[in-house]
Recover the amino acids of this structure.
């Protein structure tokens, strides 16, 4: 546990120092581009929520979880992309939660994790419905195995 904390702090510090050095040299050139889309300079930054000031007086309100009726309208490819986005978000939230817990700090907006989990469960439910509706039993069994592997 101690090595996890030390390693996590070292990696966080390296990610912050690398991104701050890179961003200070290119801040003027990329200010307009980075305002619309935030691309991580360091791959480790994807596991942390960046560009958020915790001292803001107004609380940040996050969206709701996906409803099953909305997911039923999505294609297979859209559901796969959404699953990947939700998995990445879940990993980012869990990493941030662990890092703050290790530093005895409170995790802001803990209600985001259940929203992501609900959405992921609903995607699995919709995919299971599609597998049951599949007329070919072999393909249905293959889809169910794939869903259970998620």
């Amino acid at each position: 546990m101690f090595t996890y904390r030390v390693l996590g702090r070292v990696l966080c510090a390296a990610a912050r120092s690398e991104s701050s050095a890179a961003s200070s040299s290119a801040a003027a050139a990329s200010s307009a581009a980075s305002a619309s889309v935030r691309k991580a300079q360091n791959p480790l930054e994807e596991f942390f929520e960046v560009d958020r000031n915790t001292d803001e007086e107004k609380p940040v309100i996050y969206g709701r979880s996906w409803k099953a009726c909305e997911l039923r309208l999505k294609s297979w490819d859209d559901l796969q992309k959404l699953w990947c986005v939700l998995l990445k978000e879940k990993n980012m939230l869990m990493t941030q939660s662990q890092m703050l817990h290790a530093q005895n700090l409170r995790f802001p907006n803990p209600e985001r994790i259940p929203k992501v989990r609900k959405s992921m469960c609903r995607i699995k439910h919709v995919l299971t419905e599609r597998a049951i509706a599949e007329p070919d039993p072999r393909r249905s069994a293959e889809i169910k195995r794939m869903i259970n592997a998620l």
